[in-house]
């Protein structure tokens, strides 16, 4: 049984280590969007290359994050976590010195591999090391500090882009890793899962990542040469079908189909796909809109987006308590509608927009919608399956959220009519942005309707997440392993 008390020096070092590690991946996901216009200018990249700058990272992260958690259970959580931290730092260094968009995109894909190793490990280390009596507080502190990192991310990214340059958005990860890895090796005890037999579902992970990558390529390249895009779409769908067939036949699948026998679990993951697709599309395009159309600096654009994260950090725990009292159906119905209203309000944001009267009201409504739905969504995912599978359920839900975001970043510019050079033409981008916000709002309405018709109150003795503070609007928090010998989900 884990026996390190949080108040001890070792307990504090464990918390510092996990916060540093998770902050690397979290900061990277929140600051890169702010840097995209400057990256495009410096590297001569078109909109498709900017989409890949975001999605190359998300493809490998979403495809491999469940496998990353399993590797930690098998070979040692500290070992895999440290490998992930150093891998992420090396890939970040390559991003920072990339001479062209092609190298940057390849390095971002490598970053995603490192993220898949370190992200599940950061919370699993707390679960495996901290005494059960202190674990809830430790997870709360981990989640809270992560929220602060998410809040600082856009501001820090804007400052770096306008100051030292966009390359420091990536280079900043190197000193963080050089600080994190030695602390982990010195102060964090090694641990592994009880079960150490069986094969890893490497084939399933590979097929999942390949399917996501091919579909993403097809969506991004659809406005160019349609033959390769069509071929990629067909191959991506074939890989997705193969993934489902493999998971059905594997003795220890990465994503066991039996878990979807729970109608509520399937329905809530459907809601997750809708809301996180909208979130992914919004935050990708909003940072561009504020810089390309409104004319703000990267620092001003990053700072402008802080209200959504601040509201999440301050109010998500109370939202989770409200969801416990009244059940998840109302929050999961009302939350997406509030988010849809916020995105429709963003259609008022055009050239020379006023922050106080146009941008801030939209972000406040959007943030309140996020607060309303995110914590109950996580709790409902965990409550919809057996306790022994809560970690696995959270990992699947997390992967679904990331996959939804990357597909949205690939598809939304195509559906909104953004050409490869749209972000260089403010009038063209502004018109496409308004169409995109309407599309995002429509997807949120679909998610709200799905929640209203399918979500029911969980059983009274259902499992609730230890992560009750949500600071990141990009993905739901990961849930650690639930019990010795239980399944985990990264």
From TrEMBL:
The chain crosses the membrane at residues 12-36, 56-73, 80-99, 105-126, 138-160, 166-188, 200-220, 226-246, 267-288, 294-317, 329-347, 359-383, 395-416, 436-455. This is EmrB/QacA family drug resistance transporter. GO terms for biological process: response to antibiotic. It comes from Streptomyces griseoflavus Tu4000. Residues 14-459 form the Major facilitator superfamily (MFS) profile domain. One of its GO terms (cellular component) is plasma membrane. Residues 461-490 are annotated as: Disordered. Keywords: Antibiotic resistance, Cell membrane, Membrane, Transmembrane, Transmembrane helix, Transport.
